[in-house]
Amino acid sequence: MPDAKKIFTVDAPIEKVWSFLRDMKQVGSCVPGCEGVCIVNEKDTDWKVTVNFGPFSKTIIMRAHTTFEAPPNKGEWTATGNDLYTKGSVELKKISEHKTEVTYWSSVSANGILAKLAEPIIRLKISADAAEFAECVKKRVEEV
Description:
With about 140 residues, the protein is an alpha+beta fold. It has helices spanning about 15-20, 25-30, 115-144; strands at about 5-10, 35-40, 45-55, 55-70, 75-80, 85-95, 100-110. A 7-stranded antiparallel sheet has the order 1-7-6-5-4-3-2.
């Protein structure tokens, strides 16, 4: 299962970073390919995501579920769609009153007919997506 880990620093208090990362619509605005997030309940959300596989793209609906939370330090989730399964986590560490270290980790696997085709592309793309996500989170949290 291809995975990516990105560690980055945000110039904001840990509580502010946690608040942003706990707001799934805000997080969705930073996820590459995310076209919308629908809140189902406190732990579940539906995500409309367009996934690019080289010259092909596919729009899927994924149900994300928060599997663990320890505010404001750690959150974990899984998400399942017709052809993809993801899981991930964020860990926050207070560096100072106004600086927070974020460790973002995610893994993605393709299911069914896409699996053999998609896994090599996912392996190449997942690190770039993690970097794009981290840059967006940093920018959005720091500008508020």
